[in-house]
Amino acid sequence: MEEKKIYIIGAGLSGLVAALELEKAGLSPVILEASDRVGGRMKTDEIDGFRLDHGFQVLNTAYPEAKKYLDLHALQLKTFDPGAVIFDGKDSYVITDPLRNPLKIVGMAFSKVGTFLDKVKMFSLTQELKKKSNEEIFAEPSIPTHQYLKQYGFSDQIISNFFKPFFRGIFLEKHLNTSSRMFEFVFKMFSLGHAAVPARGMGEIPEMIKRQLSTTQIYFNSPVRSVEGTRITLENGDQLPADRVIIAVQPDRIMKQLQGQFAPARTVVNLYFSTQKSFLARPMIGLLPSGQLVNNLVFMDDVSEAYSSNGRSLLSVTVLESHLTEKELVKAVQAELESISGIKAEYFKPVKQYHISYALPHVDDMKYSIPHTECKIVDQVYLAGDYLLNGSINAAMTSGRTAAEAVIHSFMPTH
Fold first, then answer.
1. Coil, strand, or helix at residue 51?
2. Tens of pLDDT along 199-243?
3. What one-character-per-residue DSSP string does 4-33 give?
4. In 126-265, which ranges are E strands?
5. Which intervals hold domain Amine oxidase (predicted)?
6. How many Cα atoms occupy the beta-carbon half-sphere of 179 within 13 Å?
7. What is the pLDDT of residue 108?
8. Distance between CA atoms of 204 and 198, rounded to whole angstroms?
9. Label partner for 274 (CA 20 to 30 A): which of 37, 106, 156, 250?
10. Rg (CA), the chain
11. In the chain, pLDDT over 90 holds for what percent of residues?
12. Is 308 helix (H, G, I), strand (E, B) or coil?
């Protein structure tokens, strides 16, 4: 079985996990990666003494796949405090632990965000979801999250002050039309685990999987133009014959027959600013329920000191949609930051802007997993990627493993 030529297109999480699983079966795949490093959508740049993740991303420590493929201890995970700082015009208040321990929340803050009944409902929902398996959650009927929250009996107050800004930042869409399956899964994960980042940035996660590979070859700066059958054509015109191909990027880019089959991906703009010091002063996410542009913000060095090595504070700001130019957007966001913090706009120094056109796949029928028989698209060609399941780190890893299983299975003698 040694000499099989297996190519994996894309060195994101799905492609790396697929390679790892193929190695365990004694195979030596080759990964073709268009960029200069592993990670796909999960990358960290080092600029001016800051570590900048491409988009605000977190790892949930309860993800089953993360426990399987990552050494969470070696990543030196830094966790966020559960809850959020809510900025309501000039007013701000902290709600701690709304998902992890809803009944312990006392004091005034929560009453501004929601009602006593909301607390009770939060508690009962976390208890219900902890009893459900992830497979059961994804087998539930799917309705839009905003409708689910109403039906569950949450008040308009808590939906607009907490759920909307919190989950908009996760789903990257304004109206919470995302499937209730995804809401239940994420809600359960947040009530069981912690949101965390590796001390040295999210790029450490794909690097850790890459370090586990021993017989896989990775060719960087090797964009693929097309896959026809098992013939791979690179952008430079080179052709590679393969025994098996795993496409671990969105396949419509390289398979002509799939063009137009995918809904446009979710986009996001992530702006970084440096300031003298954090105005949050705690490892917590800030939510702007009535923000004109800003959905959420976080000082990354409050979470992990290693995000800044130059003595200044690093502020990450997420904007879901904007039609402004880069310069106009910086000015508008600075003005919004001034209005909530009282700190003059010019003290927020722009570091970098990321316009991420493919931040999350648009998935209509969300699933937790699929049988490996469903990964095959044509003979000897298999698909991997979170778009097959749901937009999450967990799903990216699951799909990589499933595609590898399909390939391994395809070499088995049939009786």
1. strand
2. 999 999 999 999 999 999 999 999 999 999 999 999 999 999 999
3. --EEEE--SHHHHHHHHHHHHTT---EEE-
4. 195-198, 217-219, 224-228, 231-234, 239-241, 244-247
5. 13-408
6. 20
7. 53
8. 7
9. 37
10. 22
11. 87
12. strand
Q: What is the pLDDT of residues 29-58, one digit of tens each?
A: 999 999 999 999 999 999 999 999 999 999
DSSP codes of every residue in 332-385? HHHHHHHHHH-S-GGGSEEEEEEEEEEEE---SS--S---GGGSEEETTEEE-S
Task: Specify the pLDDT at position 107.
Answer: 54
- Strands (E) across 26-106 are located at 30-32, 44-47, 50-53, 59-60, 77-79, 83-88, 91-96
**Size of the chain in residues:** 415
Reading the block at residue 240, the tokens are 């590679």
Residue 377, both tokens:
């698209």
CA distance linking residue 227 with residue 55, whole number of Å:
30
Asked if 44 contacts 203 with a C-beta cutoff of 8 angstroms, the reply is yes
Residues 51, 202: contact at Cβ < 8 Å?
A: no
pLDDT tens readout for residues 249-292: 999 999 988 888 888 999 999 999 999 999 999 999 999 998 88
| Contact between residue 412 and residue 373 where contact means Cβ atoms under 8 Å apart | no
At 109, the pLDDT band (50, 70, 90 cuts) reads low
Cβ–Cβ contacts within 10 Å for residue 362, how many? 14
Instruction: Give pLDDT, residue 106.
Output: 56
CA 131/CA 204 separation, integer angstroms: 32
* pLDDT above 90 (res 97): no
Query: Distance (Å, rounded) from C-alpha 127 to C-alpha 215?
Result: 44
Give the three-class secondary structure for 237.
coil
* pLDDT tens profile 329-364: 999 999 999 999 999 999 999 999 999 999 999 998
Tokens of 404: 């590898």
- 84, HSE (Cβ side, Cα atoms, 13 Å): 25
Helices (H), 196-304: 204-212, 300-303
Its pTM surpasses 0.90: yes
How far is it between the farthest Cα atoms of the chain? 73
d(CA 55, CA 170): 11
**Residue owning tokens 């700082």:** 85
CA 331 to CA 188: how far, in whole Å? 38
Amino acid at 144: P
Q: Distance between CA 399 and CA 361 in Å, rounded?
A: 14
